[in-house]
Specification:
- The structure is a single chain.
- The chain is α/β, with parallel strands linked by helices.
- Helix content is about 45%, strand content about 20%.
- The protein contains 18 helices and 17 strands.
- It has a 9-stranded mixed β-sheet with strand order 5-4-1-6-7-8-11-10-9, with helices on both faces.
- Strand 13, helix 12 and strand 14 form a beta-alpha-beta unit.
Length: about 475
């Protein structure tokens, strides 16, 4: 990564805190691609993140300048953004507006509905981004590289550029990007601000070519910027931003090492005892609207209805972990998942065979165990920036799993030769793909799975991050 200082900015940091009744704080480390990318990178790195909860805010306040080094968290600055500002920026703008636009989740006869209240929410989003830009401007040494992550922080690159023109800035979008016709649902000034914010960066990265192209198209349509889709550059307001495609992959060795640990092995044994020698269709998701869990379960129901030969011979393990329960849409979606799961169990369960096991409590080692046992992995998002489940499953699968994959996931670009591709809105097609996957001969399954594993591990987190830093030096 060279000698220069690197700052990373993201909403969610590498650690979180819990506050006991007696006021004691305990710290927990998180996972995810960014944590792996930075682990072992060494050198001069500072991670700037937001306090997400009251416990985080208490932890940030107890140390000077929110520097969590004092807790043994490493070089992390946690920003104590006022709770109201944070909630409006995170829930109302980032997760209810930008997330919905990029994943195309609106029910357009009714939503979105931008009114006076949305303006106040937007001002909070601006203040939240400004808090990051201020912290980064203060902590960055001359010529430092700054890697700003995702849809929470689209304005921060431009704000930081104004404060510190000497810095090299990369923004990375982990979500899809909406095409211009859909992006234009945003109020005009907000749509422009988001694009201009990202164009404050020297380099803007995306997981897939499709999302990079959509971003370039939005810059042309909304800003009338000068774009070169072949050279992948956008010129606007006298500056050039280079657009890059860096599809995040998996570190296969460290994932396999984690899966070999006793807690995973114990869960594997328990799962095997629960399902016997039946075939296993596995899905693992946050209970997130874009993950399309309800249609996935409907497809399983259709499979059982159309193919009674599978009765008693297959079990669907559906892990749907809690997510964003501050938002009513997510609470309702969780209830809808539970409803259809109960219907399937009532309709087909016969006392000796449990056709569906739905688990809603988060259990990472159990997820790793399920990957190991899966015969079929179902990944059917409506839209997804990348989807790392599609990559982790083949890497850990013991006998080679067949992957049923939505064509709308970023991972599709790298895996569509060997996955069974589906339109996520077509429940009948998904049901038939599940049937094909169950019928796939073992040799073919293993061969496809080996190629899927190779694709999944092409750009592991450290290289993914390194490629973005190299792009800042003009090396890509
Ligand atoms: O998909 C993009 C992403 O940033 C993921 O990396 C992450 O899991 C999610 O969105 C954000 O989730 P949360 O709201 O739980 O931080």
């Amino acid at each position: 990564m060279g000698d220069s200082q690197v700052l990373v900015a993201s909403n969610r940091g590498p650690v979180s805190f819990a506050l006991a009744d007696d006021g004691t704080l305990s710290m927990r480390r998180g996972g995810g691609g960014l944590v792996s990318a930075l682990a072992g990178l060494g050198g001069d790195i500072l991670w700037v993140c937001a306090a997400l909860s009251d416990a985080d805010r208490a932890a940030a306040r107890r140390v000077e300048d929110g520097r969590l080094d004092a807790y043994g968290a490493g070089a992390v600055r946690m920003l104590d953004i006022p709770a109201g500002t944070f909630h409006r920026a995170y829930n109302a703008v980032a997760n209810s507006t930008l997330w919905f636009v990029h994943h195309m989740l609106y029910d357009s006869p009714n939503t979105p509905h931008f009114d006076a209240r949305s303006r106040r929410d937007w001002q909070s989003y601006e203040a939240y981004n400004a808090a990051f830009a201020d912290a980064l401007a203060r902590d960055a040494r001359p010529g430092a590289k700054v890697a700003i992550q995702d849809y929470h922080l689209t304005l921060a690159p431009g704000m930081l550029r104004e404060r510190r023109p000497d810095l090299k800035i990369v923004h990375f979008a982990h979500t899809p990007w909406a095409p211009p016709e859909y992006y234009r649902l945003l109020p005009d000034d907000i749509g422009r601000e988001v694009l201009e914010g990202i164009l404050g960066a020297d380099h803007a990265g995306f997981h897939a070519q499709r999302w990079a192209d959509a971003f370039i198209d939005c810059c042309a349509a909304v800003l009338q910027a000068k774009v070169d889709p072949v050279a992948r550059t956008v010129t606007h307001a006298g500056r050039v931003t280079r657009i890059g495609v860096h599809g995040l992959g998996i570190d296969g060795d460290s994932l396999r090492a984690r899966a070999a640990e006793p807690d995973v092995q114990a869960r594997k044994k328990a799962l095997r005892e629960q399902v016997g020698d039946r075939r296993l269709i596995v899905r693992i998701d946050r209970t997130e609207l874009s993950k399309n869990i309800v249609r996935g379960l409907a497809a399983y129901r259709e499979l059982l209805a159309k193919h009674p030969e599978w009765h008693g011979r297959v079990v669907h393990l559906a892990f749907a972990y809690p997510s964003r329960h501050d938002l009513p849409e997510y609470r309702e979606y969780t209830a809808a998942v539970q409803r259809i799961a109960a219907e399937i169990s009532d309709e087909f369960g016969d006392g000796t065979w449990e056709p569906l096991i739905l688990q809603v409590n988060d259990d990472y080692p159990r997820s790793l165990a399920a990957y190991g046992l899966a015969d079929v992995l179902l990944v059917n998002p409506i839209r997804d920036g990348m989807n790392l489940v599609a990559k982790e499953g083949p890497v850990l699968s013991e006998r080679g799993c067949a992957l049923v994959l939505s064509r709308e996931a970023g991972a599709a670009a790298e895996m569509d030769d060997d996955a069974l591709m589906i339109n996520p809105f077509d429940v009948s097609q998904t049901a038939e793909a599940l049937n094909q996957a169950l019928l796939m001969p073992p040799d073919e399954r293993a061969e496809r799975c080996a190629r899927l594993t190779a694709a999944a591990t092409t750009l592991p987190p450290q290289e993914w991050f390194g490629a973005q830093l190299a792009a800042l030096d003009g090396q890509l």
